Amino acid sequence: MTKYQQTFQDMLDYHTDLFSAFEKMHSLYEKDSKKWQKEFNDLGEEVLGVIRKYENILCNTSESGKYGKFSSNLSDKFWEVIRAKFPKIDFIGIH
User: Which residues are within 8 A (CB) of 85 and not within 5 positions of it... i.e. 6 or more apart?
Assistant: First the structure.
């Protein structure tokens, strides 16, 4: 497992309740975005905060070493894994 995949898994494992609730909300949102937009946004903001925290942990660790130039790619790969699990994550905050 790569570092970004491990970070993603650690994030899900440590915040099981939050991501379980978001997974359910994400599913509802996919079925009827107009009905669930507000709830999706509210829960999604909390989820994004956690994701950003783990993204910073992941990228700050790599920047301290000789691989700092790869932190942008690492961030992109981390977000690819997130978007694979939650394809509508970029719709958080849309009204």
Answer: 23
Count of beta carbons in the 10 Å neighbourhood of residue 91: 16
**Calculated CA dihedral for residues 43, 47, 50, 55, nearest 10 degrees:** -160
Dist CA 2 CA 16 (whole Å): 21
Number of helices followed by number of strands (H, E) in the chain? 4, 0
Whole-prediction pTM: 0.88
Could you tell me how many residues make up the chain? 95
Position 66 scores a pLDDT of: 53
**The pLDDT of residue 93 is above 90:** yes
